[in-house]
Amino acid sequence: MKKLKLVSIYVMGIFYIFAGSLHFYMPEFYMKIMPPYLPWHLELVYLSGVAEIILGIGLLLPKYRRKAAIGIILLLIAVFPANIYLAFNETAQEALGTNQMGALWIRFPIQALFIAIAYWQSKE
After folding, report:
1. What does the buried/exposed string (b/e) look like for 20-49 if buried means 16 or more CB atoms within 10 Å of the residue's CB?
2. Cβ(121)–Cβ(59) below 8 Å
C-alpha cells in the first residue's frame, strides 16, 4: 500500500503541475466555466493555476506533502462553483463541447475522487 500511495503522490503531483500550467497556456478554456457572479475571471484563472502548480510541487516534497494535500482539498472545494456552473449552464457546456450529463456524471465524481486521494495522501 505504501508503494501505491507513493506512486499516487507522484502521479497527482505531476498532474497538478501540468494542469496548473494549462491555466496560462489556455486560460480561455477555464474562463468559459467561470460563473458570471465572480469578478476578475482571468485573474482567478491565473491564481488557481499558480495554486495548482505550487500545491503539485508541494505534494512531491515530503516536508510539505501534508500541507499541500490539504491545500489541494481546499482548492478543489474552492473551484467547485465552476463545476456547478458548468453542470447547469448550457452556454458553458456548449463552449466546452459537453452536456449536463457529462458535466454532472464525469466532473463531479472525478472531483470527489481527487479530494479522497488528496485526503489519503495527507495521512502519514
Report:
1. beebeeebeebebbbeeeeeebeebbbebb
2. yes
CA separation for the pair 74, 109 (Å, rounded) = 16
CA distance 19 to 103: 18
pLDDT tens-digit series, residues 87-112: 888 888 888 888 777 777 787 889 99
- Grid-cell match 478554456, residue found: 29
- Greatest CA span in the chain, whole angstroms? 44
CB 56 within 8 A of CB 17: yes
Residues 55 and 11: their CA atoms lie apart, in Å, by: 13
Torsional sign, CA 29, 34, 40, 43? negative
Q: Are 45 and 29 in contact (CB under 8 A)?
A: no
Host domain of residue 52: 2-122
Residue 87 Cα to chain centre, angstroms: 16
pTM: 0.90
Determine the distance from the C-alpha atom of residue 37 to the mean position of all C-alpha atoms in its chain, rounded to a whole number.
Answer: 20
